Amino acid sequence: MSGAGPRMSTLKIKKQADGFVLDYGHVRLALDTGIKGETTLLTHGHTDHLRGVEKAHRVVATKATIDTLRARGHGVPGNLELLEYNQRVGQLGVVVTGLNAGHVLGSTMYLMEFDEGLSVLYTGDFNVIDSMVHQAAVPVSADVLITEATYGAPEWVFPSRKNIYENILRATTEVIENGRLPVFQAYSLGKAQEAIALLQWGGFNVVSGNHRIDEVCHVYNQHGSDLRHKPLKHSEAKDLLSGACAIVSSSFHHTRRNIRATMGSRAAKRIINNMEHYSLSGWTLGDSSKTGFPLSAHSDFNGLKTFAKKVNPRVVYCFTGNASQFSGHLVDDGLNAVPLE
Ligand SMILES: [Zn+2]
Question: Which of 118, 119, 132, 296 has the highest count of CB atoms within 10 angstroms of its CB?
């Protein structure tokens, strides 16, 4: 990719698996992927950021990210360097600072400051909005920004978190008042914990429909959350499912199977027939075929744009989702931006 100025080395960013390999001078780093003999900066524990990481010589990540990997049954790299937010770790030619990304527990943006003077910010997945369980990502200035662009098109502007939360709680109340069971589908890492925290705050009993959610909730609680849902196997879960509660599920299919396995077929049939399904995802926005709420762990279009402007970089590389459309919008706003696909 393009140079970073006169008399300096050239920054090269190459896509590999679902991440990137970055070369600058004598420094080579892998971002959310792995290369033999080199260091990987791992942003978070979602599966699409882990491909190839096992090849890494050394992996830099937060302890929370590593704990979520374990909870979700992923292998954990042997040579780990754990870092806290705002902590700096060095290797020859570069100093790396980990910054909160606001996406899921442990999620990290990386600011790389090279000895030659160039600074590069890699966001991974990030969210600029505070949630019940995550703090918003805050921009820092950098010469080069490598940003995700999942929702990088103008149609993806989400309602306020407060508004989405109110709508979820209102629907939960209505469904339960009608004698039915609301089931919310959410990723087992991040969104499920936000949904549980919200429903719990709203005064509802919550049952989780999947073992992975329970494992990840355990990690959230170890890192300071107070999630008090009941796993399906809990002695109270059967009564709750026959009475009034909300279910949080990472897979409707597996939740139904788990209910059959725990409750017996007759009780399970009654419970399953009584369910009202909702999806918690940014993609539900404006899609009438999907019943749900646009609760996203990513920044929306305005959030991505404001973030990029505040970083105030000389060049922006956009990846994933709407990368080319988003870079076009940044160019319209006077930034030098290109897609990295
Ligand atoms: Zn993610």
Answer: 296
